[in-house]
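I have been asked to look over a protein record a colleague put together. What it holds is a sequence and that sequence's fold in token form. Please read both lines and tell me whether the tokens look consistent with the sequence. I do not need a full report, just your reasoning and any doubts. This is what I was given:
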Amino acid sequence: MARPSSTPWLDVSIPLSSAMPHYPGDPVPEIKRVQALEEGAEANVTHLSLSAHAGTHVDAPVHFFSGRAGIDELPLDATMGRARVVHVPGEGQVSAEALRAHDPRPGERLLLRTRNSDRRWWELPFQESFAGLTREAADFLAERRVGCVGVDYLSVAGFHEDSPAVHRTLLDAGIWIIEGLYLGEAAPGDYELICLPLRVAGSDGAPARALLRPWTRG
């Protein structure tokens, strides 16, 4: 029987800051202190202004389909439970062939560790060359009926791929998308995943905190 490990949790989300990269066309994140104790205020208060798709976040079906579920309708077990981190190396994009080697299973929560996680990407300017899924890779995951896919940059689709088509293929297949992970400290294998986006009514996505710890058998 499988059981969660007693080892510490690994935080695989990135810190939100005004300096973090954002996807071109999205609002520039602004996180600033608007009331400060040292300036005579009664409390420290921080103002947040950012896209629903800033930093580590989850995409909802309504992101690309009008009338579909918003992020507040996320089934809690879609992004919580047993998950598998797989390593997809290489300088190009994530292809269907690369994913086929890992034999994705129906309903599986699949987290893709690519070259993006070789560095602390959130401390660098936006990189158009980031690794993401090709359209064929999205088709393959839809055919395999995985339950959730997580990627280690700001979009599941490569920058020069057909991003709307990749998103629509996954979301229309009932696959929830986690974007903006950092998997540099997560070795390939099975984990317990907790990833919960903010419960923003009707939103097309929301920032999330994502945690992993090894899944063991006992």
Remarks:
- The helical segments are 96-100, 135-144, 163-172.
- The chain is about 10% helix and 30% strand.
